[in-house]
Each structure stands twice: as structure tokens, then as C-alpha cells.
Amino acid sequence: MPSPLTVTFVQATALNAIANILAQLIDQRNNKGPFTLNGLAFIQFIIYGIISVPPNFYWQRALEARYPGFPSRAEYANAFSVRSLKSIFSPRAWFSSTDDALPSHTDKVKEKDARWAPRAQMSGLRCLGMKLLIDQTVTSIANIILFVAAINLLKGESLAKVWELVVLDFVPIMGARLKYRPIVSLLMYTVIPVDRRVVFGSACGVIWGVYLSLYAVV
Q: Which residues cross the membrane (predicted)?
């Protein structure tokens, strides 16, 4: 039986291939002649997918191991309850006494021990929030840099030119990613098993793959 990585690898590669073909169809829509596949651009995009799937697969596993699970219904209800909102804006929360503000020796010991406690002890709501935050920042930044660098290196650009293109293209690509990624991430971290997240992201991101493919063809 194939491993989860192998299944993810094959499925994500197939979705990337579909996205690239769709992108080339869109790019050549004004041509009156028959559609001609740009084989070089197709291969370059597939190679990029092959490079990007394994690190993303293991990154999602590591992220889930550090911040496991997702909020229960009770946590959602408690987080948005009137009582919780009142506690946030309570004067006691902002103007506590000096004794409350200064932790005791026992509190310091507990705090020190808590730093080494398993992440499973964190609330599901906090784990979800951390995964969403990391996905929109660290994961997005790393994947955009990887994409621009890999595609342009495959095109034969020098390292200096590749870095220039990373700086030039980062902001518009990040802007386009933020238009769809938060919704995908919310679904991914609440209902999708960890080993299926890369494929789910690829499936939801076929349109995103078209966008990246159009960039790669240029």
C-alpha cells in the first residue's frame, strides 16, 4: 500500500498538471489556430510541484504536532459568549492590583514547567489560531519564494536575477494568495486530516495554480 506522502505526491502533481494546461488554454485563447501545449513550461511547472510537495507535506505534519486539534463546539460557544466578552473589557482585567500583577514563586515554577508541557494541552481555539496565523505568514512567504526561485532557476536565470524577481513579484503574488488562502486554511485546519491537506490545498487551488502557471509561462 502506498505511503501517505506517495498518494499526496501523485494527486498534487496531477492537479498541478491540470492547472498548467488550463493556464495555457487561457493564455492562448486569443490565438485563432489550434491549441499548442508549451511542453517546456508544462515540465517546469511539474518540476516545481515535485519540489514543493514533500516539504509542504512534512511541514503540515509538524504544524499539527505542535498545535494539534481544532476547537470544539463548547470552545466556540464559550469564546463568543457574553460572559467571555465582558471579561475582556472588565476593568479588573486591565487594572489588576499589584499583588495580582506580581507572580509568586509558585506561579513562576508553574510557568517554567508549562513551557515544556505538551502542546496537546493548549485549547483547540488557540491551536487553530496559531495554525491560521502561521499559514498566512511563514508558510505563504516560504512557498512564494520557493515558487519564484524554482521557476526562474528552471528557466536558466542567474541567482542575482532570481532574487531580483523574488523582490519584484513577492507583493503581487502574496496579495493574490491572500484573496483565497484564508478560507482554504480555515477549512483545512478544521475538517481535513493532516495527510490530506496538501492535496486539499492543491484541489482548492487549481485556480491559484492557473495563476501561478500564467506567471510561469511569461
A: 39-59, 132-154, 198-217
